[in-house]
Write the C-alpha cells for this entry.
Amino acid sequence: MARMRSPEKRKALLEAAVLEIDASGLSAPTSRIASRAGVAEGTLFTYFANKDALLNELYLELKIELYQRLNAELDPKAGLKVRTRQIWFSFLNWAIEYPQKRKVSLQLHMSNLIASNTRDQAAAKSGAVAAALSELGECAAKRGLPAEFASSSMGAMQEVAMDLIAKQPERREQLEREAFEAFWRAVQ
Amino acid sequence: MARMRSPEKRKALLEAAVLEIDASGLSAPTSRIASRAGVAEGTLFTYFANKDALLNELYLELKIELYQRLNAELDPKAGLKVRTRQIWFSFLNWAIEYPQKRKVSLQLHMSNLIASNTRDQAAAKSGAVAAALSELGECAAKRGLPAEFASSSMGAMQEVAMDLIAKQPERREQLEREAFEAFWRAVQ
Amino acid sequence: MARMRSPEKRKALLEAAVLEIDASGLSAPTSRIASRAGVAEGTLFTYFANKDALLNELYLELKIELYQRLNAELDPKAGLKVRTRQIWFSFLNWAIEYPQKRKVSLQLHMSNLIASNTRDQAAAKSGAVAAALSELGECAAKRGLPAEFASSSMGAMQEVAMDLIAKQPERREQLEREAFEAFWRAVQ
Amino acid sequence: MARMRSPEKRKALLEAAVLEIDASGLSAPTSRIASRAGVAEGTLFTYFANKDALLNELYLELKIELYQRLNAELDPKAGLKVRTRQIWFSFLNWAIEYPQKRKVSLQLHMSNLIASNTRDQAAAKSGAVAAALSELGECAAKRGLPAEFASSSMGAMQEVAMDLIAKQPERREQLEREAFEAFWRAVQ
DNA sequence: GATGAATGAGGTTTCATTCAT
DNA sequence: TATGAATGAAACCTCATTCAT
C-alpha cells in the first residue's frame, strides 16, 4: 500500500465516494464507489485499508480542501468583522458550489465512524481561520459564553443560510448578506 | 379471546429502536432492536409491517411527544418574546433530558426514509408552537429574510447551545439564557 | 381434534385452500387460507394437524367429489363405448365447471406431499368408473399395452381437450366430441 | 487478469438446481443448490441475478438441450409419419435418460415464474421439430380440431408412455412402439 | 499493481406452529 | 373451541473483504 501507484485513482475513488454517499448515505457499497470511479472492486482496497479508512480519509480531504480555500481568501491583517465576513462568504460559496461535498462532510461529521484522531488532524489544518474565530470567541466570552460559541454559531447560521438559498437561488446575494448580519448581531 | 397486542411491547420496541439507532445509526439491525426490547425477532413485524414503517412511526412518535411538551408549557396569550423563550427552554429541556431521542429524531429527519405523508402528519401536531414561530418569522420578513429564517435559526442555535451544555453541564442555566439572548438578537 | 365442532368451517378452509393454491401454488401460506376462510390463523390447526394434513385431506376430498359425480352420471349397464363417453363428458364438465379445483388437484397429484396412503384411499373411491376403465384396459391389453394405458390416456387426452376448450370456449361441444373420437381411436 | 467466471460452475449450479428441484420442488432453497454445486451461498448470485433468473435460465437451457437433440435426430426430408416417429422416440429417449430434467422442465413450464420472454426464446429454438408438428396439425385440422391438438396430444401420450415405461422398464421398446401407434391413430 | 470471482456472515422478512387468553 | 400474538428457523439477497490470476 505504501506508495500509491496512481494518485489519480485515489482521487477518483474519493470523488466517487462523495457522489455515492450523497445519493445513498454512508451505507453506499464500496463496489458502487469503485465502479463509479472506473476501477475494479478490489482496487479500492489497495488505496484504502478498508471502508472505514476510506471514510476517514475522505473526511480529512474535504476539511483540508475547505480550509485551504477559506485561508486563501482571508486577509489576516483586516479587522475582525471583515475577516469574519470573508470566512462567511468563502464557506458559503464553497458549500453552494459543492453541495454534495458539504452534505457528505456533514454526514461524516455526525457519524461515529470518524476517529477522534482524524477530527484532530482536520482541526489542525484550520490555520488563520481558527485565529479569526478564536478572536471572535473572545467577544462572546465577555458575555459569559464559551469561546466556541462564536464558531459553532457561524456554522449553524450558515447551515440555515444555505437551506434558504437552496430554495430561492435567485436571492442568493441578499440572503447571504442579511443572514450574515443576523449572525453578527448574535455574536456581538 | 387471544393474547392481545400489548402497547407495552410496542413502546419497548420503539424505545429499543432509539437506543440502537443512537448507537449504530439507521442501519441498526431489526434483530438487535427486537432483542433489546425483549421480544423475538419475528415479533417486531407483528407490530410494524417492516423496518421502514417502524422508522416512520418512531419519527412520528418522537415529534408528537416533543410537540405535546412544547405546547403544554406554552402560554398562547403571552407576548412574543415570552412565548419564544418558553419554546426555547422547553425544547432544550427535552433535548437535554432525552439526548438520544433528539439525535435519533434528527437522523430520521435528515434521512430519505421518512415519507412526506409522515412529515405532514408530524407538522400537523405542532399546534400553538407553529403560531408563535410564524409570528416570529414576520419580524425576519421585515428585514428581507424568508419567514422560515426565524424557526430555522432557533433550531440551529439550540443545536449550538446543546453542544455547549453537553460540555459544561454545570453552567446549563446560564448557557441556555445567554444563547437565547444571542438568538433573539439575531432574529430581531 | 376428534369430532369437529363445525363441519362448515372445515369446508370453508378446504375451499379457501383451493382458491389460494390456485393463485399462489402449494406454498400458499396457511394464514392466507385461514383468513380467506374467515377463521383465525390458529383455528386451521384445530381442523388439520398441520399443513401437510390439510393438503392430503384436500386431495382426497377433491378426488371423492369427482368420483361421486362420475359414478352418478354413469350407467353401469350400458355398452363400453357409451360408458367411456359418459365418463369422458362427466369429467370434462366438472373440470370446466371448477377449473381451480382441477388445477389444484393436479398440483397435489404431482407433488411429493401426498402420501401413498392417501393416493390409495382416493383410488378406492373410483367405484364403477374403475370397472369401465378396467374393461377398456383389456382392449389395450390385446395390443400388448398394460391395462392402465387406457385410463392414463383418457386423462391425458382430456387434459389436451380442456386446454383447447379454454382457448375456444364457443367450440366446446365440437371439441369435446372430436377429442373423444381421437381418444377412442387411440385405445381401440 | 482476475479469476474468470467459470462456465463449469454455472453448469454445476444448473445441474444442482435440477436435482434439488426434482427433490423438493421449485421452493428448493438457493443455499442447498449452491452447496450441492460445491460453491458458497453467495456465489450463486454472481452467476444469476436472483432465484428467478436462475429458474428462467434453467428452463431455457433444458429446452435448448432437448430441441438440439430432437433436431439432430430428425430427417427433414422424410415422410410425415417417419418424422413424427423420430420426434416421438428422440423425446422419449431423452426423457427416460434424464427423468429429473424432464420433471423439472415440466414444473417450470407450469409455474408462473417463467417470463413470456423466456418462453418465446425457448420456442424460437424448436427448428425443424416445429415444422413437423405443424404439418401434423394440419391433419387434425381436417377433422375440425385446432392445429395444436396434434402436438399437445403427442406430449400427453408421451407422458403416458413414460409412466408405463417407468413401471416396466424391461418392456421399454415395445411400449414405446405400441404407444406411438395409439397416438398415431388418434391424430389421423 | 490491478482485477473481479469467491466467500460467508449478516440483514430483512416470511411462515408453520404453539400457546396464553 | 376459537383466537391471534409470539416464536425462531429458514429463505433470499447484499456486501466488505480476500485472493487466484
Remarks:
- Residues 5-6, 39-43, 46 of chain C lie near DNA strand F (CB under 10 Å from a C1').
- Chain C has a mean pLDDT of 92.
